Amino acid sequence: MDGMRISANPLRGQQFPAVLLLVAAGLGLLLANLPSHDALAAVLDLHIAVPGTVLDLSIEHWVSDGLLAIFFLVVAIELRHELTHGELDSPSKAVQPAIAAAGGVLVPIAVYLLIAGDSATATGWPIPTATDIAFALGVLAMFGRGLPSNVRVFLLALAILDDIIGIIFIAVLFAHDVQWLYLVLAVLAVAVFWLLSRLLHAKGHPAVAVAMVVVGIVAWGLVASSGIHATIAGVMLGLVMAPVPAARTRHVLEPTVNGVILPVFAFVAAFVVIPALAPSELSPAFWGIVVALPVGKIIGISVFGWLAMRIRPRGAAPALPFADILSAGALGGIGFTVSLLLANLAFAGDGTIRDQAILGVLVGSFLALLLSGVIVSLRARHYRHLGVATPSAPVEEG
């Protein structure tokens, strides 16, 4: 990275959105455990139907299925850019973070199943596999002043691969009673969206942009009706959009995603009552997530990442010191956004276990945040003492 550029809009940065997410989740957890709980729960349970369709969702699900699809649209745009022109645009660049990402998925799954592998809670194994890119980069920006830029590049690449795995889990594991007609129509709508994005790229006419919005909403509704989780619509649309319109869309949506969509989702997802139970009475799902996120992630990413550095192909980036890989591993334990979504999906049929799984995500991510803050701070201080002043996190101009 060539230098620090100050953003005029803090919502385009990394530190402020991470703080906002944490505050929103804390507020949701607080209000869920005050006398205001029943009134707010009634609002979140209020159903809003779309006339003439099968869509009839609670406000809570409009947030997790609707608003979050916009977040996944932006994520998919970023994924495509990194896979075609960014940190993962060649096998030599991708192999090291891919191996580390594999460790960051497999080891947390193993840890979770060791603790919560019985029939009632085993379905929660995907929950601790996620890494929250925005949160992890936010912590890196706050505590990593002085770290070489290749640490951020490595973390970004493995977190992107982690996101791809999370998206596959959502699409494959949590599909239910798939309605193939709706799914085929959704694919056709995505194809129309693709054609319109090429037309917008070539012509730049505002009417085409309006048509894309309409077709995108239709595609979302069809995916939501098909039995596939609605957020996958955002992924599909983001992956097929032409590069120039995609970049503009990401730029326009980024402040809204960081400042509204993710905080609202964090608030709603964290709106759970803390059970009045002794630690020994908590569900194994809670403990599995609490251990797998901070411990499983740091072990998996660090060990597999170290192995990846030993088998670097020609043209790969220089090997990172193990302490730098350890920093990335600690940051990878901050699951948060996608882990909260996975917790809701994995235990959708059991509210008690679901709420404890969500608490496990919050506690595990907070422990990972503390651990990564300490490790990253120590590592950054080491580099500052060595006189290495390479900035760790450039910020886009607003």
TrEMBL record:
Classification via PANTHER family: NA(+)_H(+) ANTIPORTER NHAA (PTHR30341:SF0), SODIUM ION/PROTON ANTIPORTER NHAA-RELATED (PTHR30341)
Signal peptide from the UniProt entry: none
Keyword list, A-Z: Antiport, Cell membrane, Ion transport, Membrane, Sodium, Sodium transport, Transmembrane, Transmembrane helix, Transport
GO cellular component: plasma membrane
Predominant subcellular localization, coarse grouping: membrane
Family the UniProt entry places it in: Belongs to the NhaA Na(+)/H(+) (TC 2.A.33) antiporter family.
Species this protein is from: Microbacterium hydrocarbonoxydans
Protein location: Cell inner membrane; Cell membrane
Protein's UniProt keywords contain Transmembrane: yes
Top-rank taxon, per record: Bacteria
Record membrane topology: Multi-pass membrane protein
Protein name in UniProt: Na(+)/H(+) antiporter NhaA
Example GO biological process: regulation of pH
Gene3D superfamilies: Na+/H+ antiporter like domain
Bilayer-spanning residue ranges: 57-77, 98-117, 123-141, 153-174, 180-197, 228-247, 259-278, 284-307, 319-345, 357-378
MF GO annotations: sodium:proton antiporter activity
UniProt catalytic activity: Na(+)(in) + 2 H(+)(out) = Na(+)(out) + 2 H(+)(in)
Any Pfam family the entry gives: Na_H_antiport_1
Role: Na(+)/H(+) antiporter that extrudes sodium in exchange for external protons.
